[in-house]
Design a protein that fits this description.
5-stranded mixed β-sheet, 15 helices, 3 domains, single chain, 588 residues, Heat Shock Protein 90
Length: 588
């Protein structure tokens, strides 16, 4: 296999495994992505639902305490007996008795009915009733006393802004939760409500005022950010965005104003408190929401990876199973390509591979027999052709030389005749070469020199032949009688005037031997030049050129042989290209 083909070659097993990989990975990726997307969405929804459930529970707990405090104020608001005592303006024992026998026990009963620490303050328009209160300047009585109740006269609050801005009375519904006076300082919240004369449902005349104060921590005890998750925060936010209460890692958020920038990278959940303008707002970091989602992704990835590995292993086993069979077939085909048709493939089975193996074995056996038969036939044919070509070239030269000897004998030139006969004997001694087809290049050139000596007798100083041979060339062998025919052609057809010069050179180029025969004769006409290698051409010069070219190609291959270049009036150059070849001396 050539290097370029080897780089492009991809084994069948790899292709089969690649197809398995595509068939495995694409569905796994699609199904895995869909599963991850669905599961992550479900986990997020579950996490959000869980947080929402926690938020609703927190809201309900707050709502319960708010409603419980409202219920306490209703015990005073709807008490007609209490209203009669508050409207009864009578000083002395009567007012004292009303206060001690009914008002104070009623207030005690009211705060004791709640589980919260409450501070009940009742403000009276009836100044005949005595004030009952503690001295708690700059202290928080809820912390020092616990549950307590007090009676004040209305003149203590009638000029307060919060009292003046209190909305008009609507029976049973007008009330406010506010931080007044020092509530913010001590972290308290107050429920404000009128006491009205319910005996006159039209006027609803104010006869007193209720203030129930509780600690924010008691009201919002259920607000705990750890119930939602680490890093979360829960706020009680008012209508203006003021944070009434906070449960967060940062304890200093109470009293600040809501900022939308806090919601970045957080899930925001709101639960409004019924009957109030407050909302319970939670900020949950998306990292907490994604924590379980990351676990789902990891678990899904592990399941997909294990599935891919298992299926890959099964696919690899199948690929290996089929690849072995294909490799056997390919190895047999490679052997056939290299000419080794004796190789057979043993294969058991009843599938298509078994049929291919049987067919290849039959084909190899049949081809081996045909090749043996054809090879022997072609070998005999080639030997016959070589002998025929060799036999043709020798008589051709002999005929020309004998013609020259005949002319010399006719003219009685005995000395030249003698020299030509001696030269002819030397030439044929080298040509016969003990019957060998191959000859050292040094002998081939010596043979050419013998031929030139013969022709110099005929042409004298009108012919000049120059040899320019690299010494390395003489180390190799060649087919005999490949240079002389071109010298003969030049002397027969290339004369241009009375003189002709012929140069014979030999050198090694690119690992091959290049022999050149160059003359300064009249060249070859273009129409004649195109027919030189035409086997149908019967001209003598073309026959000699084709003869040499065929013999070189038969022995050394098609890349070797004869090439010519010629220009009329300038001359002809012949290139003989042969390999650097050394023949075994004992072969013929």
């Amino acid at each position: 296999m050539k290097p370029e083909e080897r780089r492009r070659f991809v084994p069948f097993g790899y292709k089969l495994m690649l197809s398995y990989a595509l068939c495995i990975l694409v569905p796994v990726i699609i199904v895995g992505s869909f599963a991850v997307s669905t599961l992550v969405k479900s986990v997020r929804e579950q996490a959000e639902s869980s947080v929402q459930g926690t938020m609703r529970q927190i809201r309900d707990n707050i709502q319960y305490k708010i409603e419980d405090t409202r219920r306490l104020t209703n015990m005073i608001y709807v008490d007609t007996t209490l209203a009669k005592h508050l409207k009864h303006y009578e000083e002395g024992w009567v007012s004292y008795d009303a206060t001690t026998s009914y008002l104070l026990p009623k207030m005690m009963q009211t705060i004791q009915s709640s589980s919260l620490r409450l501070w009940l303050s009742v403000y009276l328009h009836n100044e005949t009733l005595p004030e009952v209160y503690y001295n708690h300047e700059n202290i928080d009585p809820l912390m020092t006393v616990g549950k307590l109740y007090e009676l004040y006269h209305m003149n203590r609050i009638e000029n307060a802004d919060w009292y003046k801005s209190f909305p008009p009375e609507r029976y049973g519904t007008t009330m406010q939760w506010r931080q007044i006076e020092d509530d913010a300082k001590f972290g308290r919240l107050s429920l404000l409500r009128r006491i009205v004369d319910t005996t006159n449902g039209v006027e609803l005349r104010e006869i007193g005022f209720i203030r129930v104060t509780a600690h924010l921590q008691d009201l919002f005890e259920s607000v705990d950010y750890t119930k939602v998750g680490e890093g979360s925060a829960i706020y009680i936010v008012g209508p203006q965005g003021d944070i009434l209460y906070s449960s967060a890692a940062d304890p200093n958020m109470t009293g600040k104003t809501w900022n939308e920038s806090w919601t970045r990278n957080h899930l925001v959940l709101r639960q409004p408190l019924e009957g109030l303008e407050w909302s319970v707002v939670s900020l949950v970091p998306t990292a907490i929401m994604e924590k379980d989602a990351d676990k789902v992704r990891m678990l899904t990835a592990i399941v997909c990876l294990i599935s891919v590995l298992v299926i890959f292993f099964v696919g690899w086993m199948f690929s290996r199973f089929f690849s072995k069979r294909v490799t056997k077939i390919v190895s047999v085909l490679h052997a056939f390509r290299e000419g080794e048709f004796r190789k057979r493939m043993a294969y058991e089975g009843r599938d298509e591979f078994a049929q291919i193996a049987a067919a290849l074995n039959d084909m190899g056996q049949h081809t081996e027999g045909l090749i043996r038969e054809v090879y022997l036939t072609n070998l005999q044919k080639k030997e016959a052709e070589l002998e025929s070509l060799q036999a043709q070239i020798n008589p051709h030269f002999l005929y020309n030389t004998l013609s020259s000897i005949s002319r010399l004998a006719r003219f009685g030139d005995i000395d030249k005749l003698h020299r030509m006969v001696i030269g002819l004997a030397k030439f044929y001694r080298l040509t016969l070469n003990d019957g060998r087809t191959f000859i050292p290049l040094s002998k081939e050139l010596e043979q050419v020199q013998a031929y030139v000596d013969i022709q110099s007798i005929k042409y004298g100083d009108r012919m000049e032949v120059l040899f320019d041979i690299q010494p390395e060339v003489n180390r190799y062998d060649t087919v005999k009688l490949i240079v002389q025919p071109f010298i003969e052609n030049a002397l027969q057809h290339a004369w241009c005037g009375d003189h002709i010069h012929i140069r014979i050179s030999g050198e090694i180029i690119g690992g091959d031997i290049h022999l050149k025969i160059i003359d300064d004769g009249n060249g070859i006409p273009q129409d004649r030049f195109r027919k030189l290698f035409d086997p149908l051409d019967e001209v003598e010069s073309g026959y000699g050129i084709r003869n040499v070219d065929q013999r070189i190609k038969l022995h050394f291959g098609k890349k070797y042989g004869v090439s010519l270049a010629s220009r009329p009036g300038i001359g002809t150059a012949v290139l003989l290209r042969i390999p650097t070849y050394k023949h075994k001396k004992n072969q013929g």
